[in-house]
Amino acid sequence: MNQTCTVAQLAQHVGGTVVGDGAHVVSACHGLEDADAVHVSFVANAKYGKHLDTTRAGVVLVAPGTHKTVHRAADLPPLALIEVKDPYYAFQQAVVLLHGFRRQPAAGISPLAVVDTSAVIGADVYVGAYAVVAAGVTIGAGSVIYPHVAIMEQARIGANCILYPHVTVYDACVLGDRVILHSGCVIGSDGYGFATHAGAHHKIPQVGNVILEDDVELGGNTVIQRAVTESTIIGKGSKLGDCVVIGHNTHVGPHNLFVSQVGLAGSATTGKYVVIGGQSGIGGHMMLGDGVQVAARSGVLGDVPAGMQVAGTPAVELKLARRVAMQQLTLPDLVKRIRELEDKVEKLSAAGPSA
Amino acid sequence: MNQTCTVAQLAQHVGGTVVGDGAHVVSACHGLEDADAVHVSFVANAKYGKHLDTTRAGVVLVAPGTHKTVHRAADLPPLALIEVKDPYYAFQQAVVLLHGFRRQPAAGISPLAVVDTSAVIGADVYVGAYAVVAAGVTIGAGSVIYPHVAIMEQARIGANCILYPHVTVYDACVLGDRVILHSGCVIGSDGYGFATHAGAHHKIPQVGNVILEDDVELGGNTVIQRAVTESTIIGKGSKLGDCVVIGHNTHVGPHNLFVSQVGLAGSATTGKYVVIGGQSGIGGHMMLGDGVQVAARSGVLGDVPAGMQVAGTPAVELKLARRVAMQQLTLPDLVKRIRELEDKVEKLSAAGPSA
Amino acid sequence: MNQTCTVAQLAQHVGGTVVGDGAHVVSACHGLEDADAVHVSFVANAKYGKHLDTTRAGVVLVAPGTHKTVHRAADLPPLALIEVKDPYYAFQQAVVLLHGFRRQPAAGISPLAVVDTSAVIGADVYVGAYAVVAAGVTIGAGSVIYPHVAIMEQARIGANCILYPHVTVYDACVLGDRVILHSGCVIGSDGYGFATHAGAHHKIPQVGNVILEDDVELGGNTVIQRAVTESTIIGKGSKLGDCVVIGHNTHVGPHNLFVSQVGLAGSATTGKYVVIGGQSGIGGHMMLGDGVQVAARSGVLGDVPAGMQVAGTPAVELKLARRVAMQQLTLPDLVKRIRELEDKVEKLSAAGPSA
Questions:
Q1: Which helix (H) or strand (E) holds C96?
Q2: Suppose C131 and one of A249, C53, C70, C113 were both cysteines; which one would form an S-S bond, judging by CB atoms 3.0 to 4.6 Å apart?
Q3: Contact criterion met (CB < 8 Å) for C192 and B220
Q4: Contacts of residue A229 in chain C, CB cutoff 8 Å?
């Protein structure tokens, strides 16, 4: 069951100001378009503000001053607004307040799990049926290991982690606290390292590991290759989407956001707060400075200085990339104009100085 | 063992006309190039019609009138044709007739599966070893749950579904009837939703679910994110390839075809019969109308009206995209021509009006 | 524990020549930049040669003659070099010598595995807890089947293979010897084959299989579709990265290297020693000749003759692709120059013959 609260209580919780009926009771969060009176919704992007004129939501979290721009027909139900500096963060708080996070299974080790006698399991840990915890593994207090998770030898899992079904953590990999791994994640499989010699590709043992720092979350079926030597690192607080692939010896900085299907080749490095859009790729050994933003579907083939926004393949400064993308579409016209110029110049030359 | 049939029987089954020996017996389907007398093959694309002059297949399913275009050397074995309006569909019928679908395990619940006592399991369901069916789950009659499948709390599986090994269905997700999920599919992992505030990315609980309607099929390791609120939906009869990622709150319409490695960002919407080629990406909140076709490796960054074919990144109308792609390759030549024009115009200007 | 050896022993092992102290003892491989005296490192690319002036590694594997280019400050610890023709292969040999490959579990079949009585298991095979080996499967001597692996009916696994947790091998697929499959690989799921008829997409039973020849290695979560009829083949010694998808009936030649997130559509064919960079896609039915190299993020839409290097989408000859990519960035300038030319020509025309 969801919690309920009044609009005024919610406003207090998120630090906002009520415009409308503070006594109205809400019980769930919902998208703006087909919400009804029990619902909390939000507008974080002014582009969607027009829906405020028609929504049937009970209350909407909006930016300060928004109430002045709303014009609602008389036959619509009343709409309360909560004006707050960061409506999207306020929405996050509202979802946590009314719905909470997924209720995890109660602590306890399933008799159907295989936990090696040498493994060290903290307090209040859940290990589900058919999970396998190998020799020398440690699992910190409060962690949740779902059914079918495989944790190989000497891996270390921090406290309050959640590993969903079918996650594999290879040997000697290290997870910090509060790490969340969605189903099918592969942590520490061998890096793609082969020395081609005399016609064969000789496998280089990948003897490093993977370190996922505190508060990392990885989407479904994401793969982090272990380092050839030393460590592949995903920095504190970074969040990666689904089917992302991180090459060996890559160092992802703290608080990065990589959308689904991104790929980073080996030995790449990113700074703090780097954002990479979906399906983009970063070449091997590239360095992305703090705050770099890479648009979706870009291919980064060179280092990118801190703070720069890039797009395209090869990725260049965002504004140039956009301008080039627009002008490419005029190529048929440009070709025609060049042809016409050639004709005219030909005629002028023929008429020429003798004219 | 495969079934066998005569060419005449097969023609009757697919509603086609025999040209050649209707009494010839065939027993298997096969590619055209190295087929032999027992084989049924097909030509759906006239481009491959030339192989009819040399194939050793017993019978080939072809478009009406094809027999007039075939010229075979005297020393080749006789070739029967079945002329039929839709040879590819006829081939589908032939494969079903002669080979059938994969024989699934007999109904029954493995004593090595964990099925919560509150789960409701229909008639003739198979649940394999080491599958886990959590509290409140329902599974419809005739469904096949392979070993290692994890179905989390309150999920609902329709009738005659097939879930291959290592599929995860998260809590509260809903599958219609005859849904097929290949190994490693992740249904309903958390959507990629974080509110960045004061330097940290705060996880937004994803309290919606995923709905896969009837007759959906998903390839291996495909991930469908659950909605933040409400549902991520894959419409009836839609077929997605491998390693596809569908963002939260996205609504895929009925009868869509998405090839492998496609990605749809959050809150995108597609109409009926949309086709998306491999490795293409659709931006967040984009709307694709009925019958839209997106070429492989395209990036759709705007809405696409019904019936339109698009290609490229950013995706534009297919013919323009192709023309631009061709003309880009002439850029070195265009640059040269511009330089030459500049020289000539320079000379003309110098010679100028005073000439 | 790692092995240890002297620089002279290592030089003899890799067939190189010592420049420096052959008696120095090393015990581990490490990246060049933060190595110390016990470490072996390498420089395979002259670009990274400058690090030789400052590294604190005990010994570095380098190309012949490199010692002449090294200039080290007097206060740095002594550096030994081993000059050898192929330093990267020498490094591979060093890692094997000092670290070895992952120590695999001891042979034996877990009492918690399900192995069908009709399965034929070779000598010295390991089958981990919760693995499922179905009817008619064969597993060759020395193979390692990790927990949670699912091997479906009639599949054949060669000798000395390693299947990591959560691998699925579908029915009737065939693996050669020494095949390595990382976690989450899906071998032989149904090819993407549907015949669209009267508004529905009819599934074509995929009755072929997958053949992985000897010494193939696949990264995490890679998917190989089974053939509609006959076989999808990955040739001997080929190495594929993570989240790669190979379509049905595709034939990958021997000794290919495909980096992560590559996709090959159905019925494509590659020759020997083909290399495909990350996130690239190959269209259906395309043929890539021996030694073809495809740059990262390319889209191959036509056949590519042997030995050619290609890049871009649609992929063209590498040098042209690079030149075009550079010149695209000058489009804003080209447009300006065309506009200026038009102005000048307009003026010249106006001044014209009457001048």
A1: helix C87-98
A2: C113
A3: no
A4: 28-31, 95
Closest alpha carbon to B304 in B321, B285, B322, B287: B287
Q: Which of A166, A203, A341 has its CB closest to that of C345?
A: A341
Fold of A5-98: 3.40.1390
- Structure tokens given for B287: 């709307």
Q: Where are the domains of chain C?
A: 5-98, 108-319
Kindly state the tokens that stand for B191.
């959507």
Residues 101-140 of A with CB under 8 A from B: 101-102, 112, 128-130
When CB atoms are compared, the residue of A184, A199, A344 closest to C221 is A184
Instruction: Taking residues B37-54, report their average pLDDT.
Output: 92
Given this model, what pLDDT does residue C22 score?
A: 97
The answer on pLDDT for A353 being more than 60 is no
Q: At what angle do helices B331-351 and B318-328 cross, to 10 degrees?
A: 70
User: Which residues in chain A have their CB less than 8 angstroms from residue B114's CB?
Assistant: 112, 129-130, 147
Is the ipTM above a cut-off of 0.85?
Answer: yes
Mention the CATH class of domain A108-319: mainly beta
Q: Determine phi and psi for B168, rounding to 5 degrees.
A: -115, 125
CB A297 within 8 A of CB A278: yes
How far is residue B126's CA from residue B120's CA, in Å, rounded to a whole number? 13
B290 in contact with chain C, both atoms CB, cutoff 8 A: no
Peptide bond preceding A314: is omega within 30 degrees of 0, i.e. cis?
yes
Q: What is the mean pLDDT of residues C198-205?
A: 97
Place of tokens 């000794």: C255
Contact C214, A218 (CB under 8 A): no
3-class secondary-structure state, position B231: strand
Alpha carbon distance B78, B248 (integer Å) = 56
**Percentage, residues of chain C above pLDDT 70:** 99
Note whether A246 and A252 are within 8 A (CB): yes
Contact check, Cβ <8 Å, C327/B335: yes
**Measured between alpha carbons, how far apart are the two ends of chain C, in Å?**
92
**Is the CB of residue C296 less than 8 Å from the CB of residue C313?**
no
Q: Is A263 on the interface with B (CB under 8 A)?
A: no
Asked, colleague to colleague, whether B5-98 and B108-319 share their fold, the answer is no
**Could you tell me where the beta strands, DSSP code E, fall in A57-124?**
59-62, 80-83, 108-109, 114-115, 120-121
Cis, bond preceding B105 (omega within 30 deg of 0): no
pLDDT digits (tens, 9 = 90+) for C127-181: 999 999 999 999 999 999 999 999 999 999 999 999 999 999 999 999 999 999 9
Note the pLDDT tens digit of each residue in A297-324. 999 999 999 999 999 999 999 999 999 9
Residue C355: pLDDT band with limits 50, 70, 90: very low
Whether A223 sits inside 8 A of C242 (CB atoms) is yes
The two three-digit tokens of residue A218, written as one number: 């990885």
Whole-angstrom distance, CA of residue B265 vs CA of residue B279: 13
Q: Does residue C202 carry a catalytic annotation?
A: no
Across B103-121, average pLDDT: 98
Is the Cβ–Cβ distance between C167 and C150 less than 8 Å? Answer: yes
The secondary structure of A271-286 as a DSSP string is -TT-EE-TT-EE-TT-
CB B143 within 8 A of CB B179: no
CA angle C224, B253, B216 (to 5 degrees): 40
Q: How many residues does chain C have?
A: 355
Q: If we measure between CA atoms, which residue out of B292, B297, B255 comes closest to residue B278?
A: B297
Label residues B130-139 b or e (16+ Cβ within 10 Å = b): bbbbbebbbb
Point out the residue among B95, B128, B243 whose CB comes nearest to the CB of C223: B243
From A248, A251, A255, A285, active-site residue: A248
On the question of pLDDT at C293 being above 70, the answer is: yes
